[in-house]
Amino acid sequence: MTFNIFLQHLANGISLGSLYALIAIGYTMVYGILRLINFAHGDLIMVAAYIAIYGIMMFKLPWWLSFTLAVIVTTIVGVIIERAAYKPLRSSPRISVLISAIGVSFFLENLAIVLFTGRPKPFPQPELFTTMLEVNNVYIMSLTFIIPVVTIVMLILLNYLVNKTTAGMAMRAVAKDFETSSLMGIEINKIVSYTFALGSGLAAIGGIMWGLKFPQIQPLIGVFPGLKCFIAAVVGGIGSITGATIGGFLLGIMEIMLVAFLPSLTGYRDAFAFVLLIVILIFRPTGIIGEKITEKV
Fold this sequence. Notes:
Blueprint: H1 3-34, H2 41-57, H3 63-86, H4 94-116, E1 121-122, H5 127-130, E2 132-135, E3 138-141, H6 142-164, H7 166-176, H8 178-183, H9 188-213, E4 216-217, H10 223-236, H11 241-261, H12 269-283
Antiparallel strand pairs: 1-4, 2-3
Helix pairs in contact: 1-6, 1-9, 1-10, 1-11, 2-3, 2-4, 2-9, 2-10, 3-9, 6-7, 6-9, 7-9, 10-11, 10-12, 11-12
């Protein structure tokens, strides 16, 4: 393998890894607050992609307006899911909330099949994202650079919100001690909805980027990306924004390099992610930089 080809694969790995990281952050935020694995998170990727498609193809909106509308609507959908499916079960055993999350996931997938049919639809690709750039005799699509930039910008903004704003301080307090935060006057329901809004917005941006990178959309498109981003969050340390970012980049780069160096194992690319999850759970259950969480009896 020549150095130029290696750079090509590395760029693709960073691009895919940053996409995993962007979506994984949404998983880890919700888990950090509620200790809940929101299995419907992956399906919000699908919701955002379909809204973006129909905004452009049916309503003839400019791509930037359609993408913005997709993020806004998906954020609202995420908050509605929290209010309808998770809030009534907040005092129930965690298994009840987990089953509710799985139910919401199945509901969104089947609703999408009814509304949009199971036939794959092409995702529009504006010229801005498909331009080929030459870097040191390596030709790379502009989207390969745009995805990491978007992820880094979102990460910077999110860290500012969490660490420098009043709402962010409340989020960190709730994540540390749910009951005590309530006693201290923090509006728990408001903070939880705020967290779901942020997580759903990140899932929407990830869904749009996913559609641009893999331009074929169908109702189950969010299943595997959702599972892989959950794995990325666990690998990095679920509950940690930095950990989810590291896990996403690590998983994306390792997947691409596996295919590049061992092409005979291409068919096992998805299985590799689950093997990595098992290894991490055996040797370091809290992830690379995760903190040990003591369950209250």
